[in-house]
Design goal:
The chain has one domain. It is 70% helix and 0% strand. Helix 3 runs antiparallel to helix 4. The protein is globular and about 45 Å long. The two termini are 16 Å apart. The relative contact order is 0.14.
Amino acid sequence: MPNTIVRQVISFILLVLLQVLVLNNIHLFGIITPFLYIIFIINLPYNISRHWSLLIAFLLGLVIDVFTNTLGVHILATVFVAYLRVPLLKIITRKSDEEITQLSPSIYSMEFSLFLTYVSILVFSHIFLLLFVDVISLHCFGNFILKVLFDSLFTIVLILCLELVKKH
């Protein structure tokens, strides 16, 4: 258990540093910015209490907001994803609470199509809310949707690549 906590803390720190020092400075084609840090919330074990997952998501969003000076936008988006995570897993896997308690969502513990669905919904929800609250205006709705789609797609690809290279 302590080994798992240490790994999670190191993962948290590395993902935050990667996001704020590298990924936030990437703007492919002037439109695509990956938000890889969300993988931390996506991979939280199912059996972690909702209170802890919301607190962890809040802290993750807070740290990203502090580094990016975005005034709570990342907090809102990460807490929303943490809130959706468990009900979404139940719906996608169609398993009971007893069957799903040992699940730690990853590409190795779930069928690929289920994991891809799970990740896609959470990433799209996160990025849509993040960009919607950041922009608040839909005067360029087409550009907004394109940015959400491209950011989501690129983030999903990065998450899948990271999942494939990490050990289960």
